[in-house]
Amino acid sequence: MTTRYNPALLFDSGTFKSGLSLCVGSNGKIDTATAVDRSPLAVVELKNKAVLPGFVNVHSHAFQRLIRGKSESRVTSGKDFWSWRGTMYHAAASLSPQDVYDVARMAFLEMVKAGTTTVGEFHYLHTAPDGTPYEDPNLLGRQVIDAARSVGIRIVLLRSAYLRSGFELSPDPGQTRFFETASDFCRNAEALIGTYSHDPHGVRFGIAPHSVRAVPLDALHPIVAWARSKDLPVHMHVAEQLAENAACVREYGRTPLALLHDEKLLGPDFTAVHAIHITDEEIAMLAEAQGTICSCPTTERNLGDGILAADSAMRAGIRIALGSDSQAQIDPLEDARQLDYHLRLMQQQRAILDQIGGQSLSARLFACATVNGARSLGLDSGSFTQDSSADFVTVDLNDLSIAGHTGEDLLQILMFGLNRSAIKDVFVSGKQILRDGKHALEEEIVARYQEVHRRVWKDTLGFGVAR
């Protein structure tokens, strides 16, 4: 059955237009974004609402939703990324498989309420807290997938390889749940993918060697080769921290991005997560390979990582996608606008990313939140094109945050002023999962998350680190 949605305004060709309909087939695909001469069996009127493609969150660690606000003191979490990890490790070590499910549902619910229809979950919790594999070595991965299916969000599980703590470092006890051997990783990943090979819900997968420090080169090559033999996207943390770059130089004589380039590991299927501390020469390397950068501005400023040179990357033709990463805040449009805002503070100018390649700032940032993310994850969503996935969001045109718009300037107002209160309905593959701002399982999800939260932090001093 085809359903025609009639909004007040529909996103089309970079702007919002009236008098257009969005037609969705029974297969959950876009039939046409503009045709009004169809005779669908169902018509849904979306009065005073605008319809736009759903947002794509390329990089998420769902379990880290549990540490929001718990690491904001030097007394307990130190002054930088490396000491912050102690708080994160405490949370990671505290979670049962049921807890992993409950916390992931909370993170995914918040994403949906922010207009996100797809999440790329960079998953590296694999074993029991003491490092013992579960009888099903993919138990925790399946818990995360089940959490996404419960909420209704589309998931691409980016199963992460984590083989060591770092160059010439002893195993860190906080990372015990992350470790697998390279052979175990490939075997377990293949088994997990096989479990969902005929999944009607459309669960997708990618492979995510955690970083050069966590996956040495002799293991990285076969893992990436295996992923490419399966036509899976490859995601990897790259150059997030200067110390990471320095360690890579000590081990290999090159920085991470240069190493990946020289070893021919970059490609159109490769997404470099963060890529903050890269040179102009390395930007050219990634551009030549047609790779993607996933920026996570909220997390990057929360951790003090640094600022992505988005202007240089975009001028080189590199696509930039967005991720919520540590879940310090979940707001894809906030992440999009921060790409430009961070550069404004550095360069003391405005609209730094405007008119690169002749594209307006708002259109460019919107692409980061939608089509660029979909491409990074190997999906056909993020836009209203024939046969793309019917993943879309409605916005209340009477919301205070966007009052005073016109069809011509609505995109700019959305990108730089939208509050999440304006997001009312969310559809994934044509199925409605958020209705008038409410999710059918919201009360249960929040209540179960609060139980986990109380149990994990009950013996703390209030800052998020156990006594």
Automatic annotation (TrEMBL):
EC number: 3.5.3.13
A Pfam family: Amidohydro_1
Gene3D superfamilies: Metal-dependent hydrolases, Urease, subunit C, domain 1
Domain of life, source organism: Bacteria
Segments crossing the lipid bilayer: none
InterPro entries, alphabetized: Amidohydro-rel (IPR006680), HutF (IPR010252), Metal-dep_hydrolase_composite (IPR011059), Metal_Hydrolase (IPR032466), MTA/SAH_deaminase (IPR050287)
Keywords: Hydrolase
Tagged with keyword Ligase: no
Amidohydrolase-related domain residues: 51-432
Gene Ontology MF terms in the entry: formimidoylglutamate deiminase activity
NCBIfam families from the UniProt entry: hutF, PRK09229.1-2
Annotated protein name in UniProt: Formimidoylglutamate deiminase
Species this protein is from: Granulicella mallensis
